[in-house]
């Protein structure tokens, strides 16, 4: 009696659980715009079983096939999921915009309705698309989009282009490869590589999609006017569902390789304004701080000090020149050393641009370093801004006093410069007298060199005989030469695999040859003898660590699987790194 009561309670709980689940009843079409000579597939999906399904009238269409029913159940972590689908293939009867009305179904005594869908039928297309063609289905489900952060940047103002690959939920991508990359001829460009691809949920033209960010590129336009951003094109390996079903009613999938391209994008680059443009403007665009400083303010003559001219902030730091200091002529100035520390991220360049001048005073006195001015264009305020440093006075305490009065000349830019006066001992390091000694003539006959040249060939005869004997032994060692040749080939093919990263077929062919030749060199076996069991046994006999053996076998399996399944660039890089690590470790153990 108690057993029956428990069963009733469990039944009631299961019914309550099912009824508590939200009922989902949706309608999906494979396209919302088609030619009058194409076909339309519509699926009515629900997550609970129901009765009395009523299809809509399909105004403007005739039923080409259907209804086809598919039911699936699954258990994941103790939770059951249920899905039931009613599918129709429709043929348009005329052009126009049509609304597919709601379908109805009864679940647990309640009537549920699917949402209406609007579909546009155009004139006949030149080549009707086959709804069962995997390449056509993939082209409708995969889109490459280039998003531009600014459509009207200023000249030399940073903006970004982000390339996103959108994929519909029912489509899976196994691999992609770039076949054409944008050149960015009119831009200074910097790619920001994605360290790890992350999948995001989003929408594309009102439909649910997933996307990954393939590349982000920072651009600085170098010309004004309308500039074209060339498209990025990819070859994508995909798996897509078709209209065909298996014996259980599930949709069959097909693999296809398609080419997708981002559309051309155009930006209108604005020139920098002429109003208020400073005469000393050198092309800096952004937001900057400007400083001029010295490492010493007081020193002796002939000692050196340094002047640092620095601009730091956000902007085109690599695309302009810093102003040069105007120094008194009695200060000897060397060519500047540039020590830029610039990093590029999504907001553009940021960091420090620095020029350091080494200066040596020749005479005692005080030397003023005039203020230095730096101008730049700020795109946020849309006007030119200026930063000016303070005057710096350098005091030289000990040293010769300039005996001649300073003579000044006025340069074309209005800055007075002093005439350079040479010190008496400026060239004291150059010797004007010499103490050369004559070399006595020596006789060659019976000299040390004479006897060395005479007896040398006779001494080399036994050395040549020893080398010849060793060479004959080396040549007769057939097995050793075969091992050395295999080892050399293993290194060669491993290097070839590295060069072919990104080309799956060539990479794994070279990788497999490298692994086989490595085994030939280390285990002295031929390719026909390379079974996994034999390799494992031989490595174990030579005291190779079991973990390394397992990784080596997995590399051989990766090379075999690559013949039948696509592989990503990331997977190829991981296999190459693993091969280098395993071979290096096994070399030490063997």
UniProtKB/TrEMBL annotation:
Domain of life of the native organism: Bacteria
Protein name (database record): BatD family protein
Keywords assigned by UniProt, alphabetized: Membrane, Signal, Transmembrane, Transmembrane helix
Pfam families according to UniProt: BatD
Residues of the signal peptide: 1-20
Listed transmembrane segments: 449-467
Organism of provenance: Dokdonia ponticola
Keyword Transmembrane helix: yes
Xref: InterPro entries: BatD (IPR025738)
Keyword Lipid biosynthesis carried by entry: no
């Amino acid at each position: 009696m108690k057993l029956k009561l428990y069963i009733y309670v469990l039944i009631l709980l299961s019914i309550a659980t099912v009824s508590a689940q939200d009922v989902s009843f949706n309608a999906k079409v494979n396209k919302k715009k088609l030619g009058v000579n194409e076909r339309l597939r519509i699926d009515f999906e629900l997550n609970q079983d129901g009765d009395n399904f009523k299809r809509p009238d399909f105004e403007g269409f005739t039923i080409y096939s259907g209804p086809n029913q598919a039911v699936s159940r699954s258990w994941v972590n103790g939770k059951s999921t249920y899905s039931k689908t009613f599918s129709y293939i429709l043929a348009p009867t005329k052009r126009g915009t049509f609304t597919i009305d709601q379908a109805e179904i009864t679940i647990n005594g309640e009537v549920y309705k699917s949402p209406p869908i609007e579909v546009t039928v155009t004139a006949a297309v030149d080549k009707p698309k086959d709804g069962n063609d995997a390449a056509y289905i993939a082209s409708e489900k995969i889109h490459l989009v280039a998003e531009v952060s600014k459509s009207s940047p200023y000249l030399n103002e940073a903006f970004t282009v982000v390339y996103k690959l959108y994929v519909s939920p029912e489509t899976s991508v196994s691999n992609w490869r770039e076949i054409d990359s944008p050149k960015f001829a009119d831009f200074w460009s910097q790619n920001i590589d994605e360290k790890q691809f992350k999948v995001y949920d989003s929408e594309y033209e009102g439909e649910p999609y997933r996307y990954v960010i393939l590349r982000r590129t920072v651009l600085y336009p170098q010309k004004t006017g309308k500039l074209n951003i060339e498209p990025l094109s990819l070859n994508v390996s995909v798996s897509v569902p078709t209209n065909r079903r298996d014996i259980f009613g599930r949709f069959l999938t097909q693999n296809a390789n398609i080419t997708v391209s981002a559309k051309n994008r155009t930006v209108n680059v604005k020139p920098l304004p002429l109003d208020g443009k400073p005469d000393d403007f050198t092309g800096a665009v952004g937001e900057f701080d400007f400083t001029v400083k010295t490492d010493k303010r007081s020193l002796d003559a002939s000692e050196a000090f340094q002047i640092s001219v620095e601009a730091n902030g956000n902007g085109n730091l690599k695309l302009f020149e810093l102003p040069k200091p105007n120094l008194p002529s009695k200060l000897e100035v060397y060519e500047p050393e540039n020590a830029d520390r610039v990093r590029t991220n999504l907001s553009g360049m940021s960091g420090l641009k620095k020029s350091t001048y080494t200066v040596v005073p020749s005479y005692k006195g005080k030397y003023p370093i005039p203020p230095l001015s730096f101008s730049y264009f700020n795109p946020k305020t849309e006007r030119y801004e200026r930063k000016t440093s303070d005057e710096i006075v350098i005091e030289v305490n000990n040293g010769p006093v300039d005996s001649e009065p300073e003579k000044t000349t006025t340069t074309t830019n209005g800055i007075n410069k002093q005439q350079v006066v040479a010190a008496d001992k400026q060239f004291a390091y150059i010797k004007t007298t010499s103490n050369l000694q004559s070399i006595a003539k020596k006789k060659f006959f019976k000299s040390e060199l004479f006897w060395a040249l005479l007896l040398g060939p006779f001494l080399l005869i036994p050395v040549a005989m020893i080398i010849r004997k060793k060479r004959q032994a080396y040549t007769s060692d057939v097995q050793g030469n075969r091992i050395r040749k295999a080892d050399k080939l293993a290194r060669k093919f491993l290097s070839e695999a590295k060069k072919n990263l990104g080309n799956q077929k060539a990479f794994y062919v070279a990788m497999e040859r490298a692994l086989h030749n490595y085994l030939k060199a280390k285990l002295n076996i031929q390719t026909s003898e390379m079974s996994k069991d034999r390799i494992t046994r031989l490595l174990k006999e030579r005291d190779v660590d079991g973990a390394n053996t397992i990784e080596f076998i997995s590399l051989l399996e990766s090379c075999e699987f690559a013949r039948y399944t696509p592989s990503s660039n990331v997977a190829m890089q991981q296999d190459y790194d693993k091969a280098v690590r395993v071979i290096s470790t096994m070399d030490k153990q063997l």
